[in-house]
Task: structure prediction
Amino acid sequence: MLINGKHYQTIWLNEENNQIIQVFDQRFFPHKIEIFDIKNTDDAIFAIKEMVVRGAPLIGVTAAYGIYLASLETQVRSNPDKYIEEVAQKLAQTRPTAVNLVWAIKQMLTAINQGESVEQKINIALEKANDIKQEDIEICFKIGEYGLSLIKKIAEAKHGETVNILTHCNAGWLATIDWGTATSPMYQAQQAGIDIHVWVDETRPRNQGANLTAFELNQQGIPHTLITDNTGGHLMQHGMVDLVIVGTDRTTRNGDVANKIGTYLKALAAYDNNIPFYVALPSSTLDCSIADGITEISIETRDQNEVKYIQGKVDGEIKSVLICPETTPAMNYGFDVTPAKYVTGLITERGICDASEEGIRSLFPEKF
Ligand code: MRU
Result:
């Protein structure tokens, strides 16, 4: 998608040196657009853990390139296979909730094992990471096409009046490689000439909505309004939301959805107000090995300072501001789980299905 009118993806190989992976440093959006070089596996681990990159699909692709870098590093290691395994374990532990991370690592390890020499493994690793990246772009595009059909129906029912969509966190192109998951239907609706407006939850504590989703929509010229995380319920009660679309970090086989903390409350409010609540996801986010999201999905807890401080731009500089007494303890759960019963449907690259085992099985039988 666009930044200052120019098309970008979120991750790419350095043009002069394909042993350097480059990403936007998402810690500083929208105030500073800075590129972060991932030159080795330590950088890849840092980038995921510290949220230089974030969003389930982008985390997965970054880990895939991390394994490619590990394969390069084996050139000076006495036991290459053991080394790659060690890096894979470290990468897998960086962020526990998004299942795309372990999914991508497994894909990479399976592919690499086909190679015999170190050189072969390096070539396979690069090719596989590139494939996973390319596949994500195509998947997000397909999600957009299916999601667009929902928006079209609402626009028709409203006789062309603006369709108001609410989203939480950033499941946009910055969380993927291009298009995004929750945002892909929005971008495609814009291209189809449908009048849409997006309510953007700020998404405390790290404000991915305010910093990233608002940035994306602004760059793309999609009408949007930033709201505090507590506002959605009020808007829904007053007929100001037609549709909710969010992303997910892990969806279980019975359709429970883990996503950014606060998603569950939006789903409850949508349910109470009869507003369709859809979750957009690539199949790499399905975890059919587990059924009950509430008890079985590992929820990341992060540093309490992310709650106690807010980052923003002050006098042209990015600064952090303390918002509570210094000694007040804070709790920072990164994600919550929305039970399947509150999810109207799952928008995937193969179509829209019920958030249920039957629904998921009908589109992805190979996942069971
Ligand atoms: O903590 P983050 O910023 O990685 O959380 C991101 C989300 O919760 C997204 O909604 C999710 O990863 C889906 S991204 C297509």
Summary: Residues 2-135 form a domain with the Four Helix Bundle (Hemerythrin (Met), subunit A) fold (CATH 1.20.120.420). The radius of gyration is 20 Å.
